[in-house]
Design goal:
By secondary structure, this protein is α+β, with helices and mostly antiparallel strands. InterPro entries: Vfa1 (IPR013640). Pfam families: Vfa1.
Length: 212
């Protein structure tokens, strides 16, 4: 009784990125490439350009593959908040109004106490008020014109993030349609080899290469 022959090898959808020493033709676009995806036991391998690795329609990084580290949120100082700036302006404005009210009250009291010298007091009060307004204006303008911190760096899109992860990964899983094609190719290769071995086992005579 003939021994049962093993079936075609079963592939696991887990391919490691390797670099070969000789340029090969990419199985997807036909360009020359040094990159190769191979199963851990090298039961199947496929030559492919690294640009295809960022295409989710071809492959995606395996969950065990390393990903680039995310920059720390504390690596750069937080930008100045417009709300904080507005709060400072309101605070300066309130202080100015309080000082102005105090000056008005002082001028009124002085006018009642010394009506004879009201003119000189008014002149002094106006001069002091002008100085306060001038000082406040200088402070406010300096606060407003202080350059704000540069805006935060733009947030990358999900596509850009996935592309960066793919280009830094070493282990991939093929898209189900691509993996099905690889399974079919491995099966056909095994069937051809099995047919040759069966023909040898039957002991069929070889085709003569010369006339009798």
């Amino acid at each position: 009784m003939a021994a049962t022959r093993p079936g075609p090898p079963q592939l696991t959808n887990l391919y490691h990125l390797r670099t070969v020493g000789t340029e090969k033709t990419c199985s997807m676009c036909g360009k020359a490439t040094f990159a190769c995806l191979a199963t851990p036991d090298v039961g199947d391998f496929i030559y492919v350009c690294t640009s295809h690795l960022a295409d989710p329609g071809f492959a995606k990084p395996a969950t065990s593959s390393s990903t680039p580290s995310t920059p720390s949120s504390t690596s750069s100082p937080a930008p100045a908040s417009p709300a904080n700036l507005q709060s400072e302006i309101e605070k300066v404005k309130a202080e100015y109004e309080a000082k102005l009210a105090a000056k008005d009250k002082a001028l009124a009291d002085a006018a009642v106490a010394k009506s004879s010298s009201s003119s000189s007091w008014l002149h002094s009060g106006l001069k002091t008020g002008y100085s306060a307004v001038s000082s406040l204006a200088t402070t406010t303008m300096a606060t407003i014109t202080t350059p704000l911190a540069p805006p935060p760096a733009p947030v990358p899109s999900p596509h850009e993030v996935n592309k960066a992860i793919a280009l830094n990964s070493k282990v991939f899983t093929l898209h189900r349609s691509i993996f099905a094609m690889r399974q079919d190719a491995v099966k056909k290769k095994w069937q051809a080899q099995d047919a040759r071995e069966r023909a040898k086992g039957l002991g069929l005579p070889s085709v003569p290469i010369s006339r009798p």
